[in-house]
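Appendix C: a fully annotated inverse folding record. The material below is reproduced so that readers can follow the format used throughout the book. The structure is listed first as tokens, followed by the designed sequence.
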């Protein structure tokens, strides 16, 4: 059981995850603090935000078919889709809410979007007044959101950093990474996904291929991977479910502190699958005939397998209802390392 507890100290690639088991109150405080910071930019005082003004501009960037685009935002959604032409088009939509029309127009001017373009690369960043600048304008809250709507050549490399807002990326085959503090991340049809992370939001990656490693994590939200091919897959969350379906990878890691872990589809010959939950069920629905070796441990829960295993001993139940199952199916080429502290482990056939 020491191995089980230790594994959850590195459940995801988000630094706060390892603290969650021991200091859940700190995670909650940090999440609330980030929400307060975001609200200070957005100014969510609806009583003083009765009028809305919008400013739209479109920039055409000559990045070439394999250029790099970096997007940074404070508040607002970001959408990236594959375009047909050789250029990259970015529509920047600023929306301000103020006490009246003049107040909303003034707010629009306080938030500037900086676009820097050089050979093969462009950086786009939303700049909000802070500190002395905000005080000079007598502004405690800046109720302005900025949305980016991007169309780009398929091979464009995309990097996104956001504080508050959802991120959607579709049919981009270049390197992709997307990080947001408060918002969902959804990536479909990607070629090379390096990372997809959120603090408060869900992660969904579908129909993606990469020849490297794929990291996906959240602190508060589900992580869902469907039809993904990668050399290594890491999926982790503190509070949420892990769902992994029809993936092809030599090494798969899916771990959550509070939630269930589900895996469906075929195993890869000689693959390694480490799936675990601190408080929740671990369920595998396997297809195909790949053999595997199983090492399953539950401190408080049952273990069930529909496969005819050659076991290394009977299912063991000890003090505290700890249950273990070790055995081999077929040639035992794949390795299943399944753990849960409070929950059952089920391995069934599709």
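Designed amino acids, in order:
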């Amino acid at each position: 059981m020491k191995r089980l507890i230790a594994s959850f100290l590195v459940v995801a690639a988000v630094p706060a995850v390892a603290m969650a088991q021991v200091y859940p109150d700190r995670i909650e405080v940090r999440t609330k603090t980030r929400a307060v910071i975001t609200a200070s930019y957005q100014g969510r005082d609806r009583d003083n935000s009765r009028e809305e003004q919008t400013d739209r501009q479109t920039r055409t960037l000559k990045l070439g078919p394999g250029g790099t685009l970096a997007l940074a935002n404070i508040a607002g959604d970001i959408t990236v889709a594959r375009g047909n032409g050789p250029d990259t088009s970015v529509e920047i939509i600023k929306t301000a809410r103020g006490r009246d029309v003049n107040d909303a127009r003034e707010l629009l001017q306080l938030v500037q979007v900086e676009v820097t373009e050089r050979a093969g690369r462009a950086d786009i960043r939303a700049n909000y007044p802070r500190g002395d600048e905000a005080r000079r304008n007598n502004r405690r809250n800046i109720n302005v959101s900025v949305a980016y709507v991007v169309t780009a050549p398929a091979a464009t490399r995309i990097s996104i950093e956001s504080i508050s807002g959802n991120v959607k990326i579709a049919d981009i085959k270049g390197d992709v990474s997307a990080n947001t503090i408060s918002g969902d991340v959804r990536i479909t049809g990607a070629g090379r996904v390096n990372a997809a992370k959120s603090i408060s939001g869900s992660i969904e990656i579908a129909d993606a291929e990469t020849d490297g490693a794929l990291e996906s994590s959240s602190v508060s939200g589900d992580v869902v991977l469907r039809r993904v091919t990668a050399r290594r897959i890491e999926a982790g969350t503190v509070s949420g479910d892990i769902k992994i379906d029809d993936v092809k990878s030599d090494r798969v890691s899916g771990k959550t502190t509070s939630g269930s872990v589900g895996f469906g589809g075929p195993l890869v010959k000689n693959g390694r699958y480490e799936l675990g939950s601190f408080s929740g069920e671990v369920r595998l629905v396997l297809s195909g005939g790949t053999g595997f070796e199983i090492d399953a441990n539950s401190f408080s829960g049952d273990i069930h397998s529909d496969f005819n295993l050659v076991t290394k001993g009977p299912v063991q139940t000890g003090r505290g209802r700890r249950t273990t199952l070790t055995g081999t199916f077929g040639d035992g080429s794949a390795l299943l390392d399944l753990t849960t502290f409070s929950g059952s482990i089920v391995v069934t056939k599709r």
